[in-house]
Amino acid sequence: MKYLKAGRCAAAIAGTLFLVCPAVSAHHATAAQYDVSTLVVLKGVITRADWVNPHMRVYIDVKNGSGNSDAWTVEFPSPGAAVVAGLSKQLLAVGTTLTVEAYPAKPAPEHAAPSRSACAKAMTLSDGSHFAFVVGI
Q: Which of 102, 93, 107, 97 is nearest to 122 (CA)?
């Protein structure tokens, strides 16, 4: 009976670690994925905003030099940190025009398509409202 309890305890611990570890390992330092020595300025229109942990994702269409739109994915802080910074779902609604200062993703491997993703450092809405984010480097 004693061994049965120990086995159940070990199984419970292993199960908990299995569920928790992927979430922990999924979090990263900004410099691991983004080029923090470079800033890009993206002006575009929000097409989607995902208020999810550990980081929000805002999708924007940005006009390129040819006049066509490029779809960008911009990582924002966690939903809680975004609210503390003054953001809301209404401010990041689909159709909102904004300008984002962001760290671009590091170059993709040679066989991959160029990445159009970035990590937001600051954001300005069309009315001039400015929001700055603390980015963990």
A: 102
